[in-house]
Amino acid sequence: MKKLIPAAALAIGAATALVPGVAQASPADHEGCNQMTCIQVKGNAGNYQVFGFLVDTGSGFGHYHIWGPNLEYNGPDQRWSGGRGAGSPIQYGYGAGQVCSEFWINDNGTYRPTGRACGDVS
Hints:
The structure is a single chain. The chain has one helix and nine strands; from the N terminus they run H-E-E-E-E-E-E-E-E-E. Helices cover 10% and strands 53% of the residues. The strands form two sheets. Strands 4, 5, 6, 8 and 9 form a five-stranded antiparallel β-sheet that branches. The radius of gyration is 18 Å and the shape is globular. By secondary structure, it is mainly β.
């Protein structure tokens, strides 16, 4: 037996897909962490944005290195707090491939990575 979807539900779904300003999920959207470093990627190969941040319990003095197709960013050393509200500036790129974020802690002039988080853009 076929399950029928009410026409009103189909109309609402079609209408929201066409309304400007209504966010639509992209298959390229990704968020994940590896050790202390996290990444959030939104968009697709035509235009993507990436944001690096530390896990909520992380913090440190150092810098973000973010790279991907047509993107290379090495930020300044500074004190960073953990969480999405305290991460790197949003970076923009285009092209298909892997996008990664690393946070490098500056420990008295010696840098050490705190993890590499990556996502795919297609």
